[in-house]
User: Fold these one by one.
Assistant:
Number 1:
Amino acid sequence: MVVSTPKTIENSKADDPRRARILEAAMQVFLAYGFSRTTMDDIARAVEISRPALYLLFRNKADIFRAVAEAMLERSRAGACELLFEEGPLEARLMAALDRALFQLFRIIEDSPHGDELVDVNHNIASDVVASWRQGMVACFARAIGEEAQRRGVRLEERGLSAESLAEMLFDVLEGLKARGLCRTHGEEAARRFVTLIEMALKEK
């Protein structure tokens, strides 16, 4: 089983094509077979290297899983932040960035028969990676919202708001939906509604 992804994983720690190839292959194996059924032998075969060679780079499959999560999230963060500061209406930029940051990842996970297991494993193994990713995403969204408010001459603090609080609330809403298993259509609809509220908060008097 091969699950299509937005783009291949790039190595986020060093310019090592072999490491990047391992992470890409491992992601496909985890999506196809789940975490518990995947072995180091499975990953080594997928990359076409020996198991000892794989152990030279990673301690175990949990180490590989964490590296896969870190690479995927870093790529999604970088892509989303780039989209946030392109030309165009704020609402369109926010939705494009959310799609790149979250909804593309949701689609990958939900298309896997082992998606629920992978989400649980991710919480157990890479919760700090996810927390760091969220912090970076909130910072990018807050900056985009703040710059738009400044461009429009809107002082959010006079309305009891801030760019940071709006960005935090947006991700809180999405996390709540994810916890309820409503990541795909419902998540996108909720995100669009909240982005509309952000636009209303930025409306000039």
Note: Residues 106 and 184 are 7 Å apart (CA to CA).
Number 2:
Amino acid sequence: MAHEGDPLEHERASWKPSRGLAVAVSDPVQNPGLPPHRERITDKDPAAMKRAVRTVYTLFYLSVAASIWAVVAYMIFPIESGSLTAIRDNNLFIGLGIAFAMLAIGVGAIHWSKAIMSDKEFIEPRHATRGRDSTRETVIANFATANEESGFGRRVMIRNSLFAALVASVVPGIVLFRGLAPESSPENPHAGDPVYLLSHTMWKKGSRLALDPSGRPIKASEVTLGSAFQVIPEELAGVSHHDGYLEEKAKAIVLLMRLPQEDLIETEDRKDWSYDGIVAYSKVCTHVGCPVALYEQQTHHLLCPCHQSQFDVSEGAKVIFGPAARPLPQLPITVDDEGYLIAQSDFTEPVGPSFWERH
């Protein structure tokens, strides 16, 4: 209730609606049209046009040469020797070749569009269209016009050099795939067979499971519930890096975990592959070979951080999510007379990515 002399009540009584403010509305902005066309030097001087054309196809052929150089550098500076100088030179010169090949294509394409292709301005009206025969005819006509304006059909040297540069640019990448597996030789006939290489690791019957990187053998009593250890064959601890240590370790690396015995779901043929709830699985993801490293002890799930594949350790490391195509290979384990964990054998299937052809 308002009281006498209330200032708010006085304001309500004295308020009156004000007149609206007048807003000046100007005439709509007129379309200024296109600015006067400025001819390029290549439009006015035929000699300049010829120089521009030569520049473009020269850049494209330089791209071809750079791609070839990248392949040559791969052969001149082999990384198989393990020398840091060779590895540095290999990365440097192959990288320079590929980078210059890509750069030359880009610069050539930009110079082509700026100096040679049609430079006339035009307005393209937009309106709703539906697919019909006349639309198809218009598209064909547009392609013909684009071909005429760009000179793609007439500029044979530019077109052919561009095709050559594009084809050559992928050759270094193809050649680099050679390094995925070494070539076979009389001394090592299986070196070029990825199935054989991934089917055999340094694990063998009686190999003790050793902590990585110390190489100390681990006892079953040290593996507590919920724990996860990265282990390698004890034999790897005595292998020097020059004896293929990294290659062998990459194939043999294993994750060791202990689960409650009642949580394990094992098939009949694998019931003796674990020991008192302790299981061992390859750490190499079966998608593209990334290291599976994240273990969630409550759900018993393993996660590959590269592409989010998830494996259920309690049920044979089967895939429960992600792009991996098959479970992680299991290493059969047991204990020796001293209580140390040992391997019963090597893996019974190839480790690593499942895109390899398998027997």
Note: The chain has a mean pLDDT of 83.
Number 3:
Amino acid sequence: MNAAVEAMAFFLGFFGWVMAGVAIPNRFWRVAEMEGNVITAATVYENLWMSCLVDSTAVHNCQDFPSMLGLSGHVQASRALMIASIVLGTFGLVATLVGMQCSKIGGDNYILKGRTAALGGIFFILQGLCTMIAVSWYAFNITQEFFDPLYPGTKFELGQGLYIGWCSATLALLGGTCLLCSCSVTTKEKKLSYAYRGPTRGTAYTTSVTTTTPHPYDRNAYV
């Protein structure tokens, strides 16, 4: 049962890692519709790296952000967190693959493999937290600007890249939690098996020997 849980957790973490890699280059983190007539209508969409505009003739015009230091603080933080998410997910995949019971990579030391799998679960949880913070922070700024009546710029809405990021974070958190729960159950079972193990062969038993002193009027006293 634990091996099946570890395999399921590995695939959850793997799909979460893949979806995080899909969310980073996705262009539709925030989308805005530019109102106008049929000729001047356009759609603006942005992500962490570039800003694009598509007009009514379906012509796309994308431009990278000119300066990283000139970006908003939440965009820079989201970039760093998403990159850290990919790195942590990579470590989590390697550690989980080595620590799984059905894997022969780490040898037959199941105690060490269990600890390695638990470390992989921690990496998956950190990956999910980084992705969740980055996506949620970015979405918070979008909603804050959208509902601010005094905001003079273009008001954007949530794009599909944010939803991909939320799904990625959820899968990574589920995979890491399953790994930690599986390792904790395995540790408890091993402790119980050692606790109920009977005495082994060659165990020395001590018995108390009662010594009695001879009575002064015993028959041996007269010999």
Note: The two ends are 77 Å apart (CA to CA).
Number 4:
Amino acid sequence: MTKNKGALDGIRVVEMGQLIAGPFCGQLLGDMGAEIVKLEQPETGDQMRHWGQGDKPSWWRVIARNKYSVAVDLRSEDGQQLARDLIAKADILIENFRPGTLEKWNLDPAELRKTNPGLIVVRVSGYGQTGPYSARAGFGGIGEAMGGWRGIVGYPDLPPARMGVSIGDTLAATYGCMGALAALHHRSKTGEGQIVDSALYEAVLQVMESTVADYSASGTKRRRTGSTLPGIAPSNVYPCRDGEYLIGANQDGVFARLAAAMGRPELARDERFATHRARGARQEELDALIAEWTKTMTIDELEARMVEAGVPAGRIYDAEDMLADPHFKAREALVTVPDEELGEIRMQGIFPKLSETPGSIRRPAPLRVGQDSAEVLKRWLGCEV
């Protein structure tokens, strides 16, 4: 644990989220120094407490770090009043329920902001707070499908695939965090809070590059292409004697360096491969040439050549590789967090790295629902429980 306070020191956040999207937004703000008070349903708590893989699922330890757990029954009048009292003292409220849920619980953001005009309310949902689909249930995978991501992931002769992580949820949470930071800046000038409306499908849509623009301009639809991107070559995973290795040399100068490392500098002058468009048009042919070369070497041998040649390339890492890598260690990309039940947990650190006000993990995830209720109510509201 560290005593570093972070750039958002002094900012108070009430998190009413559950599962991934809302809580990940809270994690990001907490990592940057904000105080995160998580309201959990008594006894059951957030289902994320039980998510993860292996016989000791530990996702909760990551997503709930830097948070305080307060037990509140939001379905009861007393619980709703307690939530209102806490929100009145907060700078930011995060929620990721279906639109209309807060209003049903007598926690309409418009009413909350009458009591606390500077309140910023981050609302993360599947389809946003408005529009004909707003009332629909929407998980991350649905947002990925609607936003276009699922349709382009996988191989053309197989159904759409997914990433191995919940990218739609985390993108929507990240955009919610960005919105909160922008709203804090606006509040610093005006004193006024506002609503941040982050939709899962729109967060995915934002990172879809020129998918819509290309169709609008030329009627071109991006399709599933496996491990490659059409027209971007060479940029693929290539076989070695002991595994696979990723090489990205699709820029002209970089490709020339790759060709020289292959012992075939003439490829960079060959009209079939000399330009970006030419390489893209002969993507399969070029990939086959490179694969014939890479499979004669081990990953270590190939990596040494790529480093020497200055070609962007890298191993395909899993968690074990990350823990063993000296670069991860040097940059503290992975950190150790003490845990009452599991001893110590290794997890990702704080990103991005700020030079003057770096983020930190100041406290581990709360292991018991409501374990911090008394402390928070006394400190925030002056109440004894």
Note: Residues 374 and 385 are 6 Å apart (CA to CA).
